[in-house]
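Narrative of activities, Objective 1.

The group set out to show that a structural description can be obtained from nothing but a protein's sequence at a throughput compatible with the screening campaign. Below is one input-output pair from the validation batch, recorded exactly as produced.
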Amino acid sequence: MRNIRKFRVGGWAKWLILALLVVVVGCQSLGGLDLNRALITGMDTESMQQSVTVSLHMKTDPSKLSEETKAMVDLWNDAKLEIRNMKMENWDRMSLQGQLTLAKGAIPFQAFMNSEHLVLKVDGLSKAIVIPLTEPDGSTAAFAAVTEKLQKEYQAKGIDKSMASLIVSNLPNPKSIQVTSGTEKIQNENVNVYKLETSLDGTELVPLTKTFIRNLTKDDANFKKFIGEMYDVLWPVLKPYLEKEDESSPLLPGAPFGSPFGSSMDGLKESLMEAASDKELAVDMIHTTAKQLLYIALIGIDSAGRSDEPGIQAMLSKQTQVKARLAFDQSFNLRKSELDLAFPAPDGGDQGITALQFNIQSETWDINKPVKADVLDAGKTPFVMGTSRSPAELMEEVDPESLLGELIALEMNKYEPATVYIPLQVSDEFGPYEAYLHEGISYIDLELLAAYMGADVSYEDEAITVTGMWFTTIELAAGSSEAVVDDEAYEMDGPVIKQGESYYVPLRFIAEHLYGEVDYDAESGLIELVLPE
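Output recorded for this entry:
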């Protein structure tokens, strides 16, 4: 059965916004702007329109640039990613259109997302790309029901805002921060705003982080309150399933709760369930453990600040600069922002690139007003990523004359695909690190071939499933020459042979269906296996 695990497409965006603000803002009130309230207000955004521009500039030392690095700099320096209009209908449904601008030209793109899939159209691709956001991950329907219940409870109890409140209420402010009042033009509208300007450098990062962790460890009341709210979400949903004794438990499909311990350990399970059912005890245990982890994090961050490793020293120096200019409206919604980030090269500029500078600008409007995402038609024959198509096949859909095709060609020419040379024994003797010839067919240990190909192998009785790096699945059975590749039946040149605890398979069939290339040099007696990229 193919079961579905849904994603809230926009959920990550809330935390991205929060992370952006808390790093540069802190939590105290300044100049009439309640920063704590402003940060929490961002968690209440359900719909909006937005434009975002991200620019990259690389500082270089021409005397140290290699030809390859110079070509990369010439191509990507001052690149600009523009999302001209992102329409968020809700956190599960949004669209955007924009372009990537490089020295050689621009590549326009469009996208539409809902909780089921992402549709992407890129100039230079002959087909729309469809990326499923649901997973045929082998979980049971009951497991999908559990996650759905947890998600609903999480949203209903406002855990996002509770977590954000706990974080921002314990954040210190940076040294340089000021707020003034004025107006900003946003989408041709003059908006009365609070203008916040702040900056910090790398020398402030460790002290600010340490202060935040110390504040959090002291805020026992709010910390426990948040853990209690999480308990109220998780435990009522999970408890009935954890109590199950049969293999129908959706939390441990195929392995009931008690089985890892054995029947003699049933008392341990009962004790754990009883302790977890006592909310006060459970919250206290989790709180104590969480504080211990925070203390460990505090020591780790402090030791990083004292490190003499050049890359860390550079990142925590004044060379690292963060500057922010934020505009909040009278309802404390973030309406306009500009963020400058500058980082020194971790290698000290040895490769010729001395620093990276990013500029990120955004404007937001129609906050919590009716917004309709632009649905993108994928066409009759889109390129569907996942179960039957791989990124390698996607290259066939790229117009080589387009700018996208030119960029991909430049990138691919940088790398030679990795090649493995495998000795071939012309006998029926098994060799753990070699292929052998059996009835005219080259065989190899499946585990060895999977390791070469970056694939995973799973077994269930005599049934074998191989999953490649591009999510191709090959189903095999010991003693059978039949194979099912992405739900399509094939007849291999020979059967799967079991020898002791090992399974030997026809090398060429498996390797080529995992996007490798196979050739044989009779003079050297070596099989040449070109690995997928």
